[in-house]
Amino acid sequence: MATPDISQLTSSQQEALQTYTSVTDQDPIAAIPLLQRCEWNVQIAIARFFDGEPATDPLAEAQAQAPLPSTRQTANLQYESLLAATRPSRTSHINPEDIVTRVDSSGTVPEQTYQPSAFFSIIFTPFSILYRVVSTILSPFGFLVPTFLSRLFHRLLYQSQTQNRTQRRALPPAENARRFIREFSEDYGDNDESINGEGSAPLLPFVESGFNLTLDTAKKDLKFLLVVLLSPSHDENHNYVRETLLSSQFKSFLDSHKSDLLLWGGNVRDSEAYQVSSSLQCSKFPFAALICQSSESGSNGQMAVILRVVGPIPPSELVAKLGTAITSHQTSLTAARAQQAERQATQNLRQEQDSAYERSLAQDRERARRRRDEEEAVRRAELEAREQASLVEKKKKDTQQWKTWRAQSLPTEPGPEVKDAIRVSIRLPSGERVIRKFRAEAEMEELYAFVECYEVLQAERADDKDVEEPAGYEHEYGFRLVSPMPRRVYELQDGGSIGEKVGKGANLIVEPIADDDGDNED
Protein backbone atom coordinates (compact mmCIF):
# COMPACT_ATOMS: atom_id res chain seq x y z
CA MET A 1 0.00 0.00 0.00
CA ALA A 2 1.43 3.37 -1.00
CA THR A 3 2.24 5.86 1.74
CA PRO A 4 -0.35 8.70 1.82
CA ASP A 5 0.90 12.09 0.69
CA ILE A 6 -0.25 14.94 2.92
CA SER A 7 0.45 17.52 0.23
CA GLN A 8 -2.23 15.98 -2.01
CA LEU A 9 -5.01 16.52 0.57
CA THR A 10 -7.47 19.35 0.21
CA SER A 11 -7.53 22.23 2.66
CA SER A 12 -10.57 20.83 4.49
CA GLN A 13 -8.95 17.39 4.73
CA GLN A 14 -5.71 18.90 6.05
CA GLU A 15 -7.70 20.85 8.64
CA ALA A 16 -9.51 17.67 9.70
CA LEU A 17 -6.17 15.85 9.92
CA GLN A 18 -4.69 18.60 12.08
CA THR A 19 -7.71 18.59 14.41
CA TYR A 20 -7.61 14.79 14.72
CA THR A 21 -3.86 14.60 15.47
CA SER A 22 -4.04 17.43 18.03
CA VAL A 23 -6.60 15.41 20.02
CA THR A 24 -5.23 11.87 19.59
CA ASP A 25 -1.50 12.70 19.22
CA GLN A 26 -1.32 10.05 16.48
CA ASP A 27 1.16 10.10 13.62
CA PRO A 28 -0.37 11.98 10.64
CA ILE A 29 0.62 9.26 8.14
CA ALA A 30 -1.12 6.59 10.25
CA ALA A 31 -4.15 8.83 10.82
CA ILE A 32 -4.98 9.40 7.13
CA PRO A 33 -6.33 5.85 6.44
CA LEU A 34 -8.62 6.04 9.49
CA LEU A 35 -9.94 9.44 8.42
CA GLN A 36 -10.51 8.12 4.91
CA ARG A 37 -12.53 5.21 6.28
CA CYS A 38 -14.56 7.70 8.34
CA GLU A 39 -15.20 9.92 5.29
CA TRP A 40 -12.98 12.63 6.92
CA ASN A 41 -15.41 13.02 9.83
CA VAL A 42 -13.26 14.03 12.79
CA GLN A 43 -15.80 13.08 15.46
CA ILE A 44 -16.23 9.51 14.13
CA ALA A 45 -12.46 9.13 13.74
CA ILE A 46 -11.75 10.25 17.31
CA ALA A 47 -14.46 7.95 18.67
CA ARG A 48 -13.05 4.99 16.74
CA PHE A 49 -9.51 5.83 17.89
CA PHE A 50 -10.44 5.67 21.58
CA ASP A 51 -13.27 3.07 21.46
CA GLY A 52 -11.98 0.90 18.63
CA GLU A 53 -13.39 0.41 15.17
CA PRO A 54 -16.61 -1.57 14.79
CA ALA A 55 -16.50 -5.05 13.32
CA THR A 56 -18.52 -3.91 10.32
CA ASP A 57 -18.69 -0.54 8.60
CA PRO A 58 -22.30 0.84 8.71
CA LEU A 59 -21.74 2.75 5.49
CA ALA A 60 -20.44 -0.31 3.65
CA GLU A 61 -23.37 -2.44 4.88
CA ALA A 62 -25.88 0.18 3.81
CA GLN A 63 -24.25 0.47 0.43
CA ALA A 64 -24.16 -3.31 0.00
CA GLN A 65 -27.84 -3.72 0.88
CA ALA A 66 -29.02 -0.83 -1.29
CA PRO A 67 -30.44 -1.77 -4.74
CA LEU A 68 -28.54 -0.76 -7.81
CA PRO A 69 -29.75 2.67 -9.01
CA SER A 70 -31.23 3.08 -12.42
CA THR A 71 -29.89 6.58 -13.07
CA ARG A 72 -26.90 8.58 -12.02
CA GLN A 73 -29.06 11.10 -10.19
CA THR A 74 -30.72 8.34 -8.13
CA ALA A 75 -27.30 6.92 -7.23
CA ASN A 76 -26.07 10.27 -6.06
CA LEU A 77 -29.16 10.89 -3.95
CA GLN A 78 -29.01 7.43 -2.44
CA TYR A 79 -25.31 7.78 -1.65
CA GLU A 80 -25.92 11.09 0.06
CA SER A 81 -28.80 9.66 2.10
CA LEU A 82 -26.69 6.68 3.21
CA LEU A 83 -23.79 8.94 4.04
CA ALA A 84 -26.06 11.23 6.03
CA ALA A 85 -27.50 8.24 7.89
CA THR A 86 -24.08 6.97 8.98
CA ARG A 87 -22.46 10.35 9.60
CA PRO A 88 -23.48 12.15 12.80
CA SER A 89 -24.85 15.61 12.41
CA ARG A 90 -22.25 18.37 12.69
CA THR A 91 -24.79 20.63 14.32
CA SER A 92 -25.17 20.39 18.05
CA HIS A 93 -28.20 18.57 19.50
CA ILE A 94 -28.13 20.95 22.43
CA ASN A 95 -30.77 23.60 22.61
CA PRO A 96 -28.99 26.92 21.97
CA GLU A 97 -30.75 28.39 25.00
CA ASP A 98 -29.11 25.74 27.21
CA ILE A 99 -25.53 26.52 26.16
CA VAL A 100 -23.71 28.44 28.89
CA THR A 101 -20.97 30.87 27.90
CA ARG A 102 -18.86 33.37 29.75
CA VAL A 103 -20.60 36.59 30.66
CA ASP A 104 -19.31 40.13 30.25
CA SER A 105 -18.49 41.23 33.78
CA SER A 106 -16.49 44.30 32.80
CA GLY A 107 -19.44 46.71 32.52
CA THR A 108 -21.21 48.71 35.17
CA VAL A 109 -24.44 47.78 36.89
CA PRO A 110 -27.23 47.84 34.30
CA GLU A 111 -30.38 49.76 34.78
CA GLN A 112 -32.82 47.24 36.24
CA THR A 113 -36.56 47.49 35.85
CA TYR A 114 -38.70 45.91 38.53
CA GLN A 115 -42.41 45.34 38.41
CA PRO A 116 -44.33 47.88 40.53
CA SER A 117 -46.48 46.69 43.40
CA ALA A 118 -49.99 45.34 42.74
CA PHE A 119 -51.63 48.46 44.17
CA PHE A 120 -49.89 50.81 41.74
CA SER A 121 -50.45 48.41 38.87
CA ILE A 122 -54.24 48.42 39.43
CA ILE A 123 -54.39 52.20 39.71
CA PHE A 124 -52.29 53.04 36.64
CA THR A 125 -53.51 50.24 34.35
CA PRO A 126 -56.56 52.17 32.92
CA PHE A 127 -54.46 55.28 32.41
CA SER A 128 -51.74 53.28 30.70
CA ILE A 129 -54.22 51.62 28.34
CA LEU A 130 -55.94 54.93 27.57
CA TYR A 131 -52.60 56.60 26.95
CA ARG A 132 -51.50 53.93 24.51
CA VAL A 133 -54.78 53.98 22.59
CA VAL A 134 -54.90 57.75 22.36
CA SER A 135 -51.22 58.02 21.44
CA THR A 136 -51.68 55.43 18.71
CA ILE A 137 -54.76 57.14 17.22
CA LEU A 138 -53.46 60.68 17.50
CA SER A 139 -49.85 59.95 16.61
CA PRO A 140 -50.24 61.58 13.13
CA PHE A 141 -51.40 64.79 14.90
CA GLY A 142 -48.72 64.70 17.51
CA PHE A 143 -47.26 67.98 16.35
CA LEU A 144 -50.42 69.75 17.60
CA VAL A 145 -49.87 68.59 21.23
CA PRO A 146 -47.17 70.41 23.20
CA THR A 147 -44.15 68.22 23.78
CA PHE A 148 -43.82 68.95 27.49
CA LEU A 149 -47.36 67.58 28.17
CA SER A 150 -46.50 64.23 26.63
CA ARG A 151 -43.25 64.00 28.57
CA LEU A 152 -44.97 64.98 31.82
CA PHE A 153 -47.68 62.32 31.48
CA HIS A 154 -45.09 59.65 30.59
CA ARG A 155 -43.03 60.58 33.65
CA LEU A 156 -46.07 60.35 35.94
CA LEU A 157 -46.93 56.88 34.62
CA TYR A 158 -43.49 55.40 35.17
CA GLN A 159 -42.38 57.40 38.20
CA SER A 160 -43.13 54.52 40.54
CA GLN A 161 -40.90 52.19 38.51
CA THR A 162 -38.06 54.70 38.53
CA GLN A 163 -38.31 55.11 42.29
CA ASN A 164 -38.07 51.35 42.80
CA ARG A 165 -34.81 51.06 40.86
CA THR A 166 -31.81 50.56 43.12
CA GLN A 167 -28.19 51.01 42.22
CA ARG A 168 -25.30 49.01 43.70
CA ARG A 169 -21.63 49.86 43.41
CA ALA A 170 -19.95 47.74 40.77
CA LEU A 171 -17.16 45.47 42.11
CA PRO A 172 -14.77 42.98 40.54
CA PRO A 173 -16.22 39.47 40.16
CA ALA A 174 -14.37 38.01 43.16
CA GLU A 175 -15.37 40.95 45.38
CA ASN A 176 -18.94 40.61 44.16
CA ALA A 177 -18.99 36.94 45.19
CA ARG A 178 -17.57 37.71 48.64
CA ARG A 179 -20.06 40.54 49.13
CA PHE A 180 -22.93 38.19 48.26
CA ILE A 181 -21.68 35.57 50.72
CA ARG A 182 -21.24 38.17 53.45
CA GLU A 183 -24.72 39.66 52.91
CA PHE A 184 -26.23 36.17 52.71
CA SER A 185 -24.72 35.26 56.09
CA GLU A 186 -25.77 38.56 57.64
CA ASP A 187 -29.37 38.36 56.38
CA TYR A 188 -30.06 34.68 57.06
CA GLY A 189 -27.59 33.73 59.76
CA ASP A 190 -28.57 33.12 63.38
CA ASN A 191 -27.79 35.67 66.06
CA ASP A 192 -25.04 33.62 67.64
CA GLU A 193 -23.40 33.09 64.25
CA SER A 194 -23.56 36.80 63.41
CA ILE A 195 -21.95 37.57 66.76
CA ASN A 196 -19.08 35.20 66.07
CA GLY A 197 -18.23 37.22 62.96
CA GLU A 198 -15.35 35.95 60.89
CA GLY A 199 -14.88 32.86 63.04
CA SER A 200 -18.28 31.41 62.10
CA ALA A 201 -18.58 28.94 59.24
CA PRO A 202 -20.46 30.05 56.10
CA LEU A 203 -24.09 29.01 55.84
CA LEU A 204 -23.62 27.42 52.40
CA PRO A 205 -20.40 26.49 50.58
CA PHE A 206 -20.61 29.23 47.94
CA VAL A 207 -17.55 29.66 45.73
CA GLU A 208 -15.68 32.90 46.39
CA SER A 209 -14.90 33.67 42.75
CA GLY A 210 -16.59 35.19 39.74
CA PHE A 211 -18.95 33.26 37.52
CA ASN A 212 -16.55 33.03 34.58
CA LEU A 213 -13.74 31.60 36.71
CA THR A 214 -16.12 29.18 38.43
CA LEU A 215 -17.48 28.05 35.04
CA ASP A 216 -13.95 27.47 33.75
CA THR A 217 -13.07 25.51 36.89
CA ALA A 218 -16.13 23.29 36.53
CA LYS A 219 -15.30 22.67 32.87
CA LYS A 220 -11.65 21.91 33.55
CA ASP A 221 -12.31 19.64 36.55
CA LEU A 222 -15.42 18.07 34.96
CA LYS A 223 -17.70 19.02 37.85
CA PHE A 224 -21.31 20.07 38.16
CA LEU A 225 -22.07 23.75 38.74
CA LEU A 226 -25.18 24.77 40.67
CA VAL A 227 -26.08 28.43 40.14
CA VAL A 228 -28.49 30.07 42.59
CA LEU A 229 -29.86 33.53 41.71
CA LEU A 230 -31.75 35.52 44.32
CA SER A 231 -33.79 38.70 44.08
CA PRO A 232 -34.24 40.45 47.47
CA SER A 233 -37.28 42.37 46.15
CA HIS A 234 -39.13 39.12 45.40
CA ASP A 235 -41.81 38.17 47.91
CA GLU A 236 -40.82 34.50 48.08
CA ASN A 237 -37.08 35.12 48.35
CA HIS A 238 -36.85 35.04 52.17
CA ASN A 239 -38.98 31.91 52.59
CA TYR A 240 -37.12 30.16 49.75
CA VAL A 241 -33.79 30.72 51.40
CA ARG A 242 -34.97 29.80 54.88
CA GLU A 243 -37.06 26.77 54.03
CA THR A 244 -35.22 25.37 50.99
CA LEU A 245 -31.59 26.50 50.71
CA LEU A 246 -30.91 26.40 54.45
CA SER A 247 -32.80 23.17 55.03
CA SER A 248 -30.97 20.16 56.42
CA GLN A 249 -31.89 18.09 53.32
CA PHE A 250 -30.27 20.53 50.93
CA LYS A 251 -27.17 20.92 53.13
CA SER A 252 -26.81 17.15 53.36
CA PHE A 253 -27.11 16.93 49.58
CA LEU A 254 -24.33 19.51 49.14
CA ASP A 255 -22.11 17.68 51.65
CA SER A 256 -22.57 14.38 49.85
CA HIS A 257 -21.64 15.95 46.48
CA LYS A 258 -18.95 18.39 47.62
CA SER A 259 -16.31 16.53 45.60
CA ASP A 260 -18.10 16.92 42.26
CA LEU A 261 -20.36 19.97 42.72
CA LEU A 262 -19.61 23.70 42.86
CA LEU A 263 -22.15 26.13 44.30
CA TRP A 264 -22.22 29.70 42.99
CA GLY A 265 -24.73 32.33 44.08
CA GLY A 266 -25.53 35.88 43.09
CA ASN A 267 -27.79 38.81 43.74
CA VAL A 268 -29.47 40.03 40.53
CA ARG A 269 -28.95 43.60 41.66
CA ASP A 270 -25.26 43.03 40.89
CA SER A 271 -24.00 43.42 37.36
CA GLU A 272 -22.47 39.96 37.01
CA ALA A 273 -25.46 38.11 38.47
CA TYR A 274 -27.78 40.10 36.20
CA GLN A 275 -25.69 39.06 33.18
CA VAL A 276 -25.79 35.44 34.38
CA SER A 277 -29.58 35.54 34.73
CA SER A 278 -29.86 36.77 31.14
CA SER A 279 -27.47 34.09 29.90
CA LEU A 280 -29.37 31.30 31.71
CA GLN A 281 -32.77 32.52 30.39
CA CYS A 282 -34.04 33.23 33.90
CA SER A 283 -37.71 34.22 33.81
CA LYS A 284 -38.71 34.07 37.47
CA PHE A 285 -37.05 34.28 40.88
CA PRO A 286 -35.83 32.53 42.92
CA PHE A 287 -33.91 30.59 40.27
CA ALA A 288 -31.49 27.66 40.26
CA ALA A 289 -29.73 26.00 37.35
CA LEU A 290 -27.52 22.90 37.21
CA ILE A 291 -24.75 23.10 34.62
CA CYS A 292 -22.27 20.49 33.41
CA GLN A 293 -20.31 19.57 30.33
CA SER A 294 -22.61 18.24 27.65
CA SER A 295 -22.17 14.69 26.43
CA GLU A 296 -24.16 15.26 23.22
CA SER A 297 -22.39 14.67 19.91
CA GLY A 298 -21.14 17.85 18.32
CA SER A 299 -21.13 19.78 21.60
CA ASN A 300 -17.32 20.09 21.59
CA GLY A 301 -17.25 20.00 25.39
CA GLN A 302 -19.57 22.99 25.85
CA MET A 303 -21.14 23.69 29.22
CA ALA A 304 -24.92 23.40 29.13
CA VAL A 305 -27.87 23.73 31.50
CA ILE A 306 -29.27 20.28 32.33
CA LEU A 307 -31.81 21.44 34.92
CA ARG A 308 -33.69 24.65 35.67
CA VAL A 309 -35.62 25.11 38.91
CA VAL A 310 -37.80 28.22 38.80
CA GLY A 311 -39.74 29.66 41.69
CA PRO A 312 -40.13 28.43 45.25
CA ILE A 313 -39.91 24.68 45.69
CA PRO A 314 -39.80 22.32 48.71
CA PRO A 315 -36.33 21.08 49.65
CA SER A 316 -37.23 17.45 49.09
CA GLU A 317 -38.38 18.15 45.54
CA LEU A 318 -35.28 20.30 44.81
CA VAL A 319 -32.95 17.58 46.11
CA ALA A 320 -34.81 14.94 44.12
CA LYS A 321 -34.55 16.90 40.87
CA LEU A 322 -30.89 17.67 41.40
CA GLY A 323 -30.12 14.05 42.29
CA THR A 324 -31.92 12.75 39.21
CA ALA A 325 -30.10 15.19 36.91
CA ILE A 326 -26.71 14.41 38.42
CA THR A 327 -27.29 10.66 38.23
CA SER A 328 -28.30 10.85 34.56
CA HIS A 329 -25.09 12.68 33.63
CA GLN A 330 -22.75 11.10 36.15
CA THR A 331 -21.76 8.23 33.86
CA SER A 332 -20.63 10.47 31.02
CA LEU A 333 -18.71 12.73 33.37
CA THR A 334 -17.06 9.73 35.04
CA ALA A 335 -15.96 8.44 31.63
CA ALA A 336 -14.72 11.90 30.70
CA ARG A 337 -12.79 12.10 33.99
CA ALA A 338 -11.24 8.70 33.30
CA GLN A 339 -10.19 9.81 29.82
CA GLN A 340 -8.86 13.06 31.23
CA ALA A 341 -6.90 11.17 33.90
CA GLU A 342 -5.55 8.82 31.25
CA ARG A 343 -4.53 11.72 29.04
CA GLN A 344 -2.93 13.46 32.02
CA ALA A 345 -1.09 10.28 32.97
CA THR A 346 0.07 9.85 29.39
CA GLN A 347 1.16 13.48 29.28
CA ASN A 348 2.99 13.14 32.60
CA LEU A 349 4.68 9.96 31.37
CA ARG A 350 5.67 11.69 28.14
CA GLN A 351 7.01 14.65 30.11
CA GLU A 352 8.99 12.33 32.38
CA GLN A 353 10.36 10.49 29.36
CA ASP A 354 11.25 13.79 27.70
CA SER A 355 12.85 14.99 30.91
CA ALA A 356 14.85 11.76 31.25
CA TYR A 357 15.86 12.02 27.61
CA GLU A 358 16.93 15.63 28.09
CA ARG A 359 18.94 14.69 31.19
CA SER A 360 20.59 11.80 29.35
CA LEU A 361 21.26 14.04 26.37
CA ALA A 362 22.74 16.68 28.67
CA GLN A 363 24.98 14.06 30.28
CA ASP A 364 26.09 12.83 26.86
CA ARG A 365 26.80 16.40 25.80
CA GLU A 366 28.75 17.00 29.01
CA ARG A 367 30.80 13.84 28.51
CA ALA A 368 31.44 14.80 24.89
CA ARG A 369 32.44 18.30 25.99
CA ARG A 370 34.85 16.95 28.62
CA ARG A 371 36.28 14.52 26.08
CA ARG A 372 36.78 17.36 23.60
CA ASP A 373 38.37 19.48 26.32
CA GLU A 374 40.72 16.65 27.28
CA GLU A 375 41.63 16.03 23.66
CA GLU A 376 42.16 19.74 23.15
CA ALA A 377 44.33 19.92 26.28
CA VAL A 378 46.41 16.96 25.07
CA ARG A 379 46.70 18.54 21.64
CA ARG A 380 47.77 21.88 23.13
CA ALA A 381 50.29 20.13 25.41
CA GLU A 382 51.76 18.24 22.47
CA LEU A 383 51.87 21.43 20.42
CA GLU A 384 53.53 23.33 23.26
CA ALA A 385 56.00 20.48 23.76
CA ARG A 386 56.85 20.51 20.06
CA GLU A 387 57.18 24.28 20.08
CA GLN A 388 59.34 24.13 23.21
CA ALA A 389 61.52 21.43 21.69
CA SER A 390 61.76 23.46 18.52
CA LEU A 391 62.76 26.54 20.50
CA VAL A 392 65.33 24.56 22.46
CA GLU A 393 66.70 23.06 19.29
CA LYS A 394 66.81 26.47 17.61
CA LYS A 395 68.46 28.03 20.65
CA LYS A 396 71.00 25.24 20.75
CA LYS A 397 71.71 25.69 17.06
CA ASP A 398 71.92 29.48 17.37
CA THR A 399 74.20 29.15 20.40
CA GLN A 400 76.55 26.85 18.52
CA GLN A 401 76.53 29.17 15.51
CA TRP A 402 77.21 32.15 17.76
CA LYS A 403 80.14 30.38 19.43
CA THR A 404 81.61 29.55 16.06
CA TRP A 405 81.11 33.13 14.86
CA ARG A 406 82.53 34.61 18.06
CA ALA A 407 85.48 32.27 18.05
CA GLN A 408 86.34 33.42 14.53
CA SER A 409 86.01 37.06 15.55
CA LEU A 410 88.28 36.79 18.61
CA PRO A 411 91.67 38.45 18.17
CA THR A 412 94.74 36.25 18.31
CA GLU A 413 96.83 36.01 21.44
CA PRO A 414 99.37 38.88 21.60
CA GLY A 415 102.99 37.87 21.11
CA PRO A 416 106.16 38.73 23.09
CA GLU A 417 106.46 42.03 21.27
CA VAL A 418 103.41 43.36 23.15
CA LYS A 419 104.85 44.62 26.41
CA ASP A 420 101.55 45.46 28.20
CA ALA A 421 99.93 42.06 27.57
CA ILE A 422 98.13 40.67 30.63
CA ARG A 423 98.60 37.05 31.57
CA VAL A 424 95.41 35.40 32.85
CA SER A 425 95.14 31.89 34.31
CA ILE A 426 91.64 30.44 34.05
CA ARG A 427 90.39 27.25 35.72
CA LEU A 428 87.53 25.76 33.71
CA PRO A 429 84.58 23.85 35.29
CA SER A 430 86.17 20.62 33.98
CA GLY A 431 89.25 21.32 36.13
CA GLU A 432 91.48 22.17 33.21
CA ARG A 433 93.65 25.28 33.65
CA VAL A 434 94.15 27.54 30.64
CA ILE A 435 96.72 30.33 30.50
CA ARG A 436 96.37 33.05 27.87
CA LYS A 437 97.52 36.59 27.26
CA PHE A 438 95.11 39.43 26.47
CA ARG A 439 95.67 43.02 25.51
CA ALA A 440 95.22 45.41 28.35
CA GLU A 441 92.70 47.56 26.46
CA ALA A 442 90.52 44.53 25.54
CA GLU A 443 87.03 44.53 27.06
CA MET A 444 85.97 42.03 29.72
CA GLU A 445 83.51 40.60 27.19
CA GLU A 446 86.51 39.29 25.19
CA LEU A 447 87.68 37.34 28.24
CA TYR A 448 84.17 35.92 28.76
CA ALA A 449 83.93 35.08 25.03
CA PHE A 450 87.27 33.25 25.15
CA VAL A 451 86.05 31.05 28.01
CA GLU A 452 82.67 30.45 26.26
CA CYS A 453 84.28 29.57 22.91
CA TYR A 454 87.30 27.64 24.29
CA GLU A 455 86.04 24.28 23.07
CA VAL A 456 85.31 25.71 19.62
CA LEU A 457 88.79 27.24 19.49
CA GLN A 458 90.33 23.92 20.36
CA ALA A 459 88.33 22.09 17.65
CA GLU A 460 88.77 24.79 14.96
CA ARG A 461 90.26 23.56 11.73
CA ALA A 462 91.89 25.44 8.94
CA ASP A 463 89.23 24.56 6.40
CA ASP A 464 86.31 25.98 8.46
CA LYS A 465 84.29 28.54 6.60
CA ASP A 466 83.34 31.90 7.94
CA VAL A 467 80.10 31.82 9.92
CA GLU A 468 77.73 34.75 10.25
CA GLU A 469 76.22 35.91 13.50
CA PRO A 470 72.72 34.36 13.96
CA ALA A 471 69.97 36.93 13.30
CA GLY A 472 67.94 38.01 16.29
CA TYR A 473 70.00 36.04 18.75
CA GLU A 474 71.29 37.56 21.99
CA HIS A 475 73.78 35.38 23.80
CA GLU A 476 73.66 34.98 27.58
CA TYR A 477 76.70 33.74 29.48
CA GLY A 478 75.91 31.01 31.96
CA PHE A 479 78.92 31.58 34.17
CA ARG A 480 80.92 34.27 35.91
CA LEU A 481 84.64 34.82 36.48
CA VAL A 482 85.77 34.92 40.09
CA SER A 483 89.13 35.68 41.73
CA PRO A 484 89.51 33.31 44.72
CA MET A 485 92.07 35.13 46.92
CA PRO A 486 90.69 37.56 47.83
CA ARG A 487 87.28 36.63 46.36
CA ARG A 488 86.16 39.06 43.76
CA VAL A 489 83.54 38.58 41.09
CA TYR A 490 84.11 40.19 37.70
CA GLU A 491 80.59 40.76 36.42
CA LEU A 492 80.23 41.21 32.70
CA GLN A 493 77.58 43.92 33.04
CA ASP A 494 80.03 46.05 35.05
CA GLY A 495 82.03 46.60 31.84
CA GLY A 496 85.56 47.94 31.70
CA SER A 497 88.77 46.68 30.14
CA ILE A 498 90.77 43.68 31.25
CA GLY A 499 93.63 45.85 32.38
CA GLU A 500 91.37 47.98 34.56
CA LYS A 501 89.60 45.03 36.16
CA VAL A 502 92.28 42.33 36.40
CA GLY A 503 95.51 44.31 36.57
CA LYS A 504 98.87 42.85 35.48
CA GLY A 505 97.70 39.27 35.92
CA ALA A 506 95.15 37.14 37.66
CA ASN A 507 94.07 33.65 38.53
CA LEU A 508 90.36 33.25 37.74
CA ILE A 509 87.84 30.51 38.33
CA VAL A 510 84.80 29.85 36.10
CA GLU A 511 81.70 29.50 38.27
CA PRO A 512 78.51 28.30 36.49
CA ILE A 513 75.59 30.51 37.45
CA ALA A 514 72.98 27.76 37.26
CA ASP A 515 74.91 25.43 39.51
CA ASP A 516 75.48 28.21 42.01
CA ASP A 517 71.75 29.02 42.13
CA GLY A 518 70.91 25.39 42.60
CA ASP A 519 73.39 25.15 45.46
CA ASN A 520 71.87 28.20 47.10
CA GLU A 521 68.42 26.67 46.84
CA ASP A 522 69.66 23.43 48.37
From TrEMBL:
SMART domains on file: UAS (SM00594), UBX (SM00166)
InterPro entries cross-referenced by the UniProt entry: Thioredoxin-like_sf, UAS, UBA-like_sf, Ubiquitin-like_domsf, UBX_dom, UBX_domain-protein
Ranges of Basic and acidic residues composition bias in the record: 351-376
A single BP term in Gene Ontology: ERAD pathway
A GO MF label: ubiquitin binding
Domain UBX intervals: 417-494
A Pfam cross-reference name: UBX
GO cellular component terms attached to this protein's record: endoplasmic reticulum
Keyword Ribonucleoprotein tagged: no
Segments of this protein annotated with the region Disordered: 341-376
Keywords on record: Coiled coil
Protein's UniProt name: UBX domain-containing protein 10
